[in-house]
UniProtKB/TrEMBL annotation:
Requisite cofactors: Mg(2+)
Family: Belongs to the diacylglycerol/lipid kinase family.
Transmembrane segments: none
Protein name per the record: DAGKc domain-containing protein
Database matches in PANTHER family: SPHINGOSINE KINASE, SPHINGOSINE KINASE RELATED PROTEIN
Residue ranges of every copy of the DAGKc domain listed in the record: 13-151
InterPro entries per the UniProt record, alphabetical: ATP-NAD_kinase_N, Diacylglycerol_kinase_cat_dom, Lipid_Phosphate_FormReg, NAD/diacylglycerol_kinase_sf
């Protein structure tokens, strides 16, 4: 049963605060073109959305790390597999350094060219409305992670 005090609850009881980090250059600008629709859909469902745009991979990593520590309920990334990789690592690091704190969920809005990780989770990169609905609905699931060296 969903927990009404849990911002990641899938019953939509309480809108979450979402820190959305976007690679606007993903898929030759597809992420940038889709951003107004994605942000609008999230805000229309009552979510507070803080958007950060990255210009480089290093800046993306920095923005994602900042977003993970911002106090938002959800760290969402929009782009391709590179953004997903950075998001997974940031959530794993946050969880390791804050084991007793509230959980940080990772949201994905696939807008890159490959989107392999999103596809493996059942998200259709060609249906951004559906992926955004999953994020807005607060649907969560656990995934296994493996640490290799410092990743």
């Amino acid at each position: 049963m969903p927990d009404p005090d849990d911002p990641a609850s899938s019953d939509g009881a309480r809108p979450a605060s979402i820190a959305l980090v976007v690679n606007p250059a993903a898929a030759k600008g597809r992420a940038q073109r889709l951003l107004p629709e994605v942000a609008g859909r999230l805000r229309d469902t009552g979510h507070a959305v803080e958007i950060s745009l990255s210009r480089t991979p290093d800046e993306a990593a920095e923005l994602i790390a900042q977003a993970a520590g911002s106090g938002a309920d959800v760290l969402a990334v929009m782009g391709g597999d590179g953004m997903a990789h950075l998001g997974v690592n940031a959530v794993a690091e946050h969880t390791a350094t804050h084991p007793d704190g509230p959980p940080l969920a990772l949201g994905l809005v696939p807008a890159g060219t490959g989107n392999d990780f999103a596809r493996s989770l059942g998200l259709d990169p060609d249906d951004v409305a559906s992926a955004t609905a999953v994020l807005a609905g607060g649907t969560t699931r656990s995934v296994d992670l493996l640490r290799v060296d410092d990743r």
